[in-house]
Amino acid sequence: MALLTLADYESTAGSLAAWPPGVWDFLTGGAGTESTVTANREAFARWRLMPRVCVDVSVVETSTTVLGSDWDLPVAFAPTALHEVCTRDAEAATASAATALGVPMVVSALSSRTIEDIADAAPEATLWQQVYLFRDRKVTASLVQRASAAGAQAIVVTVDVPRPARRLRDIRNELRFPPHVQARNLAASTGRAPDVSSPSAHTAEAMDPSVTWEDVQWLTELSALPVLVKGIQVGQDAEHARRAGAAGVIVSNHGGRQLDRARPTLDALPEIRTAVPSGYPVLLDGGVRTGAEVMIALALGADAVLVGRPVLHGLAVAGKHGAAMVLGILRAELTDAMAQSGHPTLDSVDRSAIHPAPDPALLSADTVPPPAPRVLR
Ligand SMILES: Cc1cc2nc3c(=O)[nH]c(=O)nc-3n(C[C@H](O)[C@H](O)[C@H](O)COP(=O)(O)O)c2cc1C
Ligand SMILES: CCCCCCC(=O)C(=O)O
Q1: Residue of the nearest CA to atom 7 in ligand 2?
Q2: Nearest CA-CA partner of 186 in 135, 226, 225
Q3: Does the Cβ of 313 fall within 6 Å of ligand 1?
Q4: What's the CA-to-centroid distance between 77 and ligand 1, angstroms?
Q5: Using one digit for the tens of pLDDT, what is the confidence trace for 38-88?
Q6: Does the keyword Flavoprotein apply (predicted)?
C-alpha cells in the first residue's frame, strides 16, 4: 500500500513486528484516560478552511522566518526521547531528515545520541536543544553549554513535567527499555549513564517539582541563545515566560502525556496569542497530522507547529527516509491546501482563513428540539 498520509505511516509503524514489548504503547499513549491525546486531534476537526478564489496561486511559498532563521516549512521536529527505539541511527537519522526538508529539529535532553554527534552527522541541520530544569541545575547548565558549543541555535525548556505522569499503558506493561537504549546526551552532562530503563523512575529522580519562573529566568540568562518555554497552556503563563526573558513560547500539553483532561492545545492557542505582543513567537504542538491542520494552527495565531509522534512513525518505518517522507507529506498537503484556498504565501493565513465547523452534537437527531406544543383553544 502506498503511504500517502501520516495516518498511513502510523498504522504501518504500529504493525511492525520489531517493537520491543511495551514500546509502541509508550510512543502512542498518554496520561490517564488519554482524553487529551484524543482531544488534541479532535480540536482540529472543529475548524474548516474558507477557500478564496481567483487568487494567483501559480507559485505557493511555504517558507517562513522564526527567531530570525529561515525555515522551508512552518513545521519543526518536536523533541522526543530515545530515537534509538525507532531506528539504529537514532537522532543522526532524524537530523538528516530535518536538513533535507529545511526544518529545525529540537533535540531531546533524553536523546540517544549526543548533541555533538548529531551536529557532526548533519552539519547543515538547524538544531535546537531541549532541556529540563533538572534537580541538578549543573546538568541543565552543561546541556546548554554543550549545545551552544555544538552550534545549536536555541534552547527549549520543557516546564510541564513536575513529576512522572500516570501513563497507564506503561504501568500495565511494566515498561522497561532494552539495555542498548541509552540517553547518551544526558549521560554526557551527568558524567554517568543515567538508568532510563524505566521512564517513570527516571523522571521521578531527575525532574524538579519546585521549578518556578525564577528558574526559567536563570536559564534565559545562562547563555546568549534564545530560550523558548515549552508546555505553556494558558495566556498568563505565556506572559510570565516573556517576562522571565523567554524569546518565545510553545503551546503544548506534551502530546497529552502529562495531564489527562488538559484542554487541547489548539483551543488554548487564541488566548495565548492575545496574551503576548504581536510578533512574539508562539509555536504549537499536539495532534498536528495534516497540512490543512498546519494552516488552521497558523490561522489561530501560531507562527509554526511541531510534530512529535509522526516523526517517530517515519523513523520506525524507513529510518531517515521515512522521517523525511512524513515531513514531505505535510509539505505537499500544506502546499495543496494553500493553493486550493487562495493563499500563495503564509502571511495571508489569518483568522479569516478558517470557519468553525458545525457542532456535530447539534446536528444529531436526538438533539433537534421537539416542535413547540400546539396551543389548544
Ligand atoms: C515518545 C515521546 C517522547 C517524548 N519525549 C519528549 C522529550 O524528551 N522532551 C519533551 O519536551 N517532550 C517530549 N515529548 C513531547 C513532544 O515534544 C510533543 O510535545 C508531543 O509529542 C506533540 O504531540 P504529537 O505527538 O501529537 O505531535 C515526547 C513525546 C513522545 C510521543
Ligand atoms: C527516561 C527516558 C524516557 C523519557 C520519557 C520521555 C517521554 O516520554 C516524554 O517526555 O513524554
Answers
A1: 81
A2: 135
A3: no
A4: 10
A5: 999 999 999 999 999 999 999 999 999 999 999 999 999 999 999 999 999
A6: yes
Scanning the chain, the segments in alpha helix (DSSP H) are 6-14, 23-28, 35-45, 90-101, 115-121, 137-149, 168-173, 184-190, 199-206, 213-220, 235-243, 265-275, 291-299, 309-340, 360-363
> Is the beta carbon of 231 within 6 A of some atom in ligand 1?
no
Asked if residue 308 has its Cβ within 6 Å of ligand 1, the reply is yes
Give me the pLDDT at residue 1, please: 85
- The CATH code of the domain that includes 153 is 3.20.20.70
Total domains present in the chain: 1
What ligand is nearest to the CA atom of residue 31? 2
Mean of the per-residue pLDDT values of the chain? 96
Indicate whether 172 belongs to any domain. yes
Residue 367 is assigned to a structural domain of this protein: no
Question: Secondary structure of the chain: what % helix, strand, coil (to 5)?
Answer: 45, 15, 40
| Distance (Å, whole) CA 280 – CA 300 | 14
**Predicted complex ipTM:** 0.99
